[in-house]
Automatic annotation (TrEMBL):
Top-level taxonomy: Bacteria, Pseudomonadati, Chlorobiota, Chlorobiia, Chlorobiales
InterPro entries named in the record: Cell/Rod_1, Cell/Rod_MreC_2, MreC, MreC_beta-barrel_core
Organism (species): Pelodictyon luteolum
Entry keyword annotation includes Lyase: no
Keywords: Cell shape
GO CC terms in record: plasma membrane
NCBIfam families: PRK13922.9-3 (NF010532)
Name listed for the protein in its UniProt record: Cell shape-determining protein MreC
Similarity field: Belongs to the MreC family.
C-alpha cells in the first residue's frame, strides 16, 4: 500500500512539473525576459547617447557664443572707428580755409557737473599744444586749453563757471562779457550790457580783439533774451556749439601778445588786477 501511494505521489509530482514546463514554454517567458532586457539596454543606451548629445550641443553652443562675442566686438570696434573717421572727415570738410592749419584733436573724456565742466583731448605738448590755445569747432568757440601734458590737454569749455570771454554783437556792435553760472549747458549770460544798448534778440555774438586768448571773429552764440535792469540788461545767449555732441575739436595757434598781457596785468590808478583771462 505504501508503494502504491508513493507511486501516485510521484506521478502527481511529475505531472505538475510537466504542466509547469508546458506553461512556461507556451508563455515564452525566457523570450519575454530577454526582450525586456534588450529593451532596457536599448533605453539605457539611448539615454546615454542623448546625454552625450546634450553635452556636445552645450559645448557647441558655448563655442558659437564665444565666436559671436568676438565677432560682435570686432564689429563694434569697426563701427566706432568708422564713426570717428566720419566725424574727422566732417570737421575737416566744415573747416573754413583760414582754419585748415589748426590742429585737430579728439575729445576722449569729459566731466560734466553743475558748474565745473572739463574736456580732455588726445593731443598734448608733443603735438604742439600749448596752454591758452583757443579751442573751437567750425560752429564756434568751445573754450581754451588750461593744462597740457606730453600727450593730452585739458580744456575749460565755455560752460564752466570760471570761463569768461569778451564778445561783440555782429549787428549793433555791442560789446559784453560771456559767462556761465551753472545749470543748463545750452544757455549762458552776457554781462555788462548797458540798458541804453540796442542789442536785440537773434543777434550773433563773436569773439573780439579784447580777448587775451581767443582769436577774433569766432561765433560764440546768439542772443535769446534781453531784459532791462537798473543799470545793465540781463542778457541770455545760446552757445554756438552743442557741447553734448563734441567729438573732434580744433586748436588754434596761441593768440597771446606778451606786451598786451603785461599792460593788462599791471595795476594802475583805480584798476584791479584781472582775475580771469577773457
Amino acid at each position: 500500500m505504501f508503494l502504491r501511494y508513493n507511486s501516485w505521489i510521484l506521478v502527481s509530482l511529475l505531472s505538475g512539473i510537466s504542466f509547469i514546463i508546458t506553461a512556461i514554454e507556451q508563455n515564452d517567458v525566457p523570450s519575454k525576459v530577454a526582450v525586456a532586457g534588450y529593451d532596457l539596454r536599448g533605453y539605457v543606451a539611448e539615454k546615454i547617447q542623448g546625454f552625450g548629445y546634450v553635452l556636445h550641443l552645450k559645448k557647441e553652443n558655448d563655442r558659437l557664443l564665444a565666436q559671436n562675442s568676438r565677432l560682435l566686438t570686432k564689429l563694434l570696434v569697426a563701427e566706432t572707428a568708422l564713426q570717428r573717421q566720419n566725424a574727422l572727415l566732417n570737421i575737416h570738410a566744415a573747416t573754413p580755409p583760414a582754419m585748415q592749419g589748426f590742429k585737430t584733436a579728439r575729445v576722449i573724456d569729459r566731466t560734466f557737473s553743475e558748474r565745473e565742466n572739463m574736456l580732455l583731448v588726445d593731443k598734448g605738448r608733443n603735438e604742439g599744444i600749448r596752454k591758452d590755445m583757443t579751442v573751437l569747432t567750425p560752429d564756434g568757440l568751445v573754450g581754451r586749453v588750461v593744462s597740457v601734458s606730453a600727450h593730452y590737454a585739458s580744456i575749460m569749455p565755455l560752460i564752466h563757471s570760471d570761463f569768461k570771454v569778451s564778445v561783440v554783437s555782429a549787428g549793433t556792435r555791442t560789446t559784453g562779457l560771456v559767462s556761465w553760472d551753472g545749470g543748463r549747458a545750452d544757455m549762458a549770460n552776457v554781462e555788462h550790457i548797458p540798458i541804453s544798448s540796442t542789442l536785440a534778440t537773434g543777434e550773433e555774438l563773436l569773439t573780439t580783439d579784447f580777448s587775451t586768448f581767443a582769436i577774433a571773429g569766432l561765433p560764440v552764440g546768439r542772443v535769446t533774451s534781453v531784459m532791462p535792469g537798473r543799470l545793465f540788461s540781463m542778457v541770455k545767449m545760446k552757445p554756438a556749439v552743442d557741447f553734448s555732441r563734441l567729438d573732434y575739436v580744433l586748436l588754434a595757434p596761441l593768440n597771446n601778445e606778451p606786451e598786451k598781457l603785461r599792460m593788462l596785468s599791471t595795476p594802475g590808478p583805480g584798476k584791479r588786477e584781472p582775475l580771469t583771462q577773457q
